[in-house]
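Hi W.,

Here's what went into the run:
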Amino acid sequence: DGGITQSPKYLFRKEGQNVTLSCEQNLNHDAMYWYRQDPGQGLRLIYYSQIVNDFQKGDIAEGYSVSREKKESFPLTVTSAQKNPTAFYLCASRGGGQPQHFGDGTRLSIL
Amino acid sequence: RKEVEQDPGPFNVPEGATVAFNCTYSNSASQSFFWYRQDCRKEPKLLMSVYSSGNEDGRFTAQLNRASQYISLLIRDSKLSDSATYLCVVNRANDYKLSFGAGTTVTVRA
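Here's what came out:
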């Protein structure tokens, strides 16, 4: 069954801690994306990757980092430099000009 | 000016009613258009793509007006299960990035 898997579903971060959100897809899509959604607001693009070993900053990349070592995987690290990390994080993938498919998200909160 | 703008609503309608709302986009080079549905605390899910000639999927009809740079979504015979936030998504040609509107909230009441 093809899809996008995000883990964990819920994550808690302590002050000064880096945390990594996982995103895996088996849709054979070239492009992958990370978005942040705050309550009552739209999606904001953090990073995206068009191809393995390449990625670009989105609109709100500060305090985040990513890697794309494999086509299937696009993990997002929320660093301690991100002072307001509490949000709903969504990973998406896209192939062949088709619409994006989303994972079911990770909710990150501060302890 | 935001690239994609939507009326946030909420649109509160009774079951069986018709509800319609628009989304405007600022970049005339936009080529692909989509409507996504997002339920509370869930991920967005594709509702339908929007084609130049307009298209229909059951009770949902999408239209594109390139001259005025907007797309619309019409829901006929509203069901309680149609209650959600509807996101407008726009893509420029040869651009991997998509632009999302902030969403229009629809609440269907019994």
